[in-house]
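Milestone 3.1: sequence recovery, worked example.
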């Protein structure tokens, strides 16, 4: 009986580690995509092939959001069953992750079409709106996932980690609103390419911050 209990405990520990590792991988990919988008948007703003840089940055943001959504989705049931959270919590987080996943997929496709030179300016402006809406709808998920992974690692968020997670969520909300506004202005023809690049710069920065905050929390939990 005791051997069975030990084996079950070892299995649960392996499952916790696997879940945290998968979520951390998605967060790191999200942060890398954010860095790429920021660099490309800055290059575009200083005049280095702005349309091409914007198209690739759009694809980078879409892939970053998509990979993070996939990482959470693949371990979603484990994340909640192992932390004992309620169905209401699962529904709330699932909605945010779904918005991020769908926004990433849609924006990535629009970015790919822009790279193929299919109405690039219009599609990139729409992608900025899509990314903005996605960030706005999923703005609270960074803190919730931080809390869940911390509990999964049998640790508690420090005051600094809590502050970073809340700040990342707040920035994500503000950037989401800004992205929607910039995309709409770009669609109506007001400094179109500049506003697209600024929108992608802000969105890339937000993605970078949220990905870094989450991966940092998971790394700390794994080390403990």
């Amino acid at each position: 009986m005791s051997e069975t209990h030990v084996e079950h405990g070892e299995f649960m520990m392996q499952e916790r580690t696997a879940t945290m590792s998968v979520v951390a991988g998605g967060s790191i990919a999200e942060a890398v995509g954010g860095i790429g988008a920021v660099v490309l948007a800055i290059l575009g703003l200083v005049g280095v092939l702005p349309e091409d840089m914007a198209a690739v940055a759009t694809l980078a943001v879409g892939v970053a959001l998509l990979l993070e959504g996939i990482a959470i989705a693949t371990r979603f049931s484990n994340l909640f069953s192992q932390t004992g959270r309620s169905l209401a919590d699962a529904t709330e987080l699932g909605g945010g992750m779904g918005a991020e996943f769908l926004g990433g997929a849609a924006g990535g496709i629009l970015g790919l079409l822009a790279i193929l030179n299919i109405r690039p300016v219009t599609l990139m402006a729409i992608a900025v709106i899509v990314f903005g809406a996605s960030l706005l709808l999923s703005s609270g998920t960074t803190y919730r996932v931080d809390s869940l992974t911390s509990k999964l690692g049998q640790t508690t968020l420090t005051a600094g980690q809590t502050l970073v997670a809340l700040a990342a969520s707040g920035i994500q909300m503000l950037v989401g609103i800004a992205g929607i506004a910039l995309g709409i202005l770009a669609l109506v023809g007001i400094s179109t390419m500049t506003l697209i690049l600024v929108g992608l710069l802000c969105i890339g920065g937000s993605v970078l911050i949220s990905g870094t905050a989450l991966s940092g929390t998971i790394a700390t939990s794994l080390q403990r």
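DSSP finds eight helices and no strands in the chain. The two ends are 29 Å apart (CA to CA).
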